[in-house]
Amino acid sequence: MHAGAYTSAASATLAASATSATSATSAASSAIPAPATLGILGGGQLGRMLVHAAQSMGYGTVVLDPAANSPAGQAAHRQIVAAYDDAQGWQHLLQACDAITTEFENVPAAALEHLAAHKPVSPPAPAVAKAQNRLHEKQHFDRCAVPCAPYRALNQAADIAQLPADIFPAIIKTARMGYDGKGQVTVHNASQAQAAWQQLGGVPCVIEKRLALALECSVIIARGADGSVVHFEPQRNVHHNGILATTYAFAGAVPAHLAHELVQATTRIAHGLDYTGVLCVEYFILQDGSWVVNEMAPRPHNSGHYTINACTHSQFDLQVRTTMRLPLVQPRHHSAAILLNLLGDIWLDAAGQPHTPPWAQVLALPGVHLHLYGKQDVKPGRKMGHITITAATAREAQTQAAQVAKLLALPFEPIALGEA
């Protein structure tokens, strides 16, 4: 069996529940078939790829986003230009679609609550609200018996004085908002913690102990309204400056003996939320071989974009299925894959002047799949697209990824294939 195939115990454990006749019958009875219309809150690249998946299944698509000509709006049948808290925009969306989902977690929970009173909406507003608050999120992990790094809430200056000395070194994160490394400060003592909290505006924060990491990974699952669950195998992630740079998705990328535990933990988190939709949970594998949960995203995730090209069903296919109450089937990972994120930096030369990346050379390489998001404004650090490299083996995928990275001046570190 080549390195692109997965045969972990997690697959065997959960596949039965995902494909049971009871679940399939339940989903079929409430299905919203094409040519119904899927409504999407958010017009970014996740929405764009969700639109593509929905349209391939025959659905109409309508996107609500405050920015005209958004990436998802370019691809959708229609875009409603309105703020996420615009009640008139909500009404237009309700009139235009049959079921609604979101492509990012910072949509107001009140919007989801209002929309859910009139049409099927997933993920549920309470789950999204938890994901919007790091403290509430960690408390949910605790309730689901999923281990976190040691943490404390910081709501006022007095909380800092009561911090235990062994929590340092630590990271202070704003309780709300913040992504791709934003809203975070590393501190080594209480004095630095006080300064960092003030730097972050004195808003409610969470401080968590900084642990010695061996690697980072994520697990993506989909849970139907009937409680059925399917999953992708855990993938290894590498970040630079707080932004995902590379995802390794092949057998052995994450230690096999941990994969089952991580899928089970993610499933407990989803069941505890009574979740419907695609859910991604990020984890840290520590140098001592243990692991802790980092955070969750109630939506498809950047680390799962490879599933479009490397799996029988992508994370976006599963998001359409959960929203439209279609049966869930366990995806099969048919190719070893590596994902490379494309930031705006590669459209700028050494002098900061615009230039076109060498796409012809990149696309001449076998197994290279280019995905650009239709963003017009190029900025350093802005996610503009991604490339997925697929191959029969992990070794071949890494060889091709190294060539792509060299052509585009992207960071890429091959992993030792025997280390897992």
Short description:
With 420 residues, the protein is an alpha+beta fold.
Name the features:
disordered N terminus; 420 residues; 15 helices; 9-stranded antiparallel β-sheet; 4-stranded parallel β-sheet
Please report the distance between the alpha carbons of the first and last residues. Answer: 17 Å
Average pLDDT taken over every residue: 92
Q: What gross morphology would you assign?
A: globular
The biggest sheet, with number of strands, parallel, antiparallel or mixed sense and barrel status, is:
9 strands, antiparallel
Question: What would you say this structure looks like, in words?
Answer:
- 32% of the residues lie in helices and 25% in strands.
- It is an alpha+beta fold and 420 residues long.
- The protein is built from 15 helices and 17 strands.
- The strands form 3 sheets. Strands 9, 10, 11, 12, 13, 14, 15, 16 and 17 form a 9-stranded antiparallel β-sheet that branches. The chain has a 4-stranded parallel β-sheet with strand order 3-2-1-4, with helices on both faces. The protein has a 4-stranded antiparallel β-sheet with strand order 5-8-6-7.
- The model is unreliable at 1-27 (pLDDT under 50).
- The chain has helices at residues 9-18, 21-29, 45-56, 71-75, 87-96, 109-116, 125-131, 134-143, 157-161, 190-199, 256-272, 307-310, 315-323, 359-363, 394-408, and strands at residues 37-41, 60-65, 78-81, 99-102, 151-154, 170-174, 184-187, 205-209, 213-223, 229-231, 235-240, 243-249, 277-286, 291-297, 336-343, 368-372, 383-391.
- The radius of gyration is 21 Å and the shape is globular.
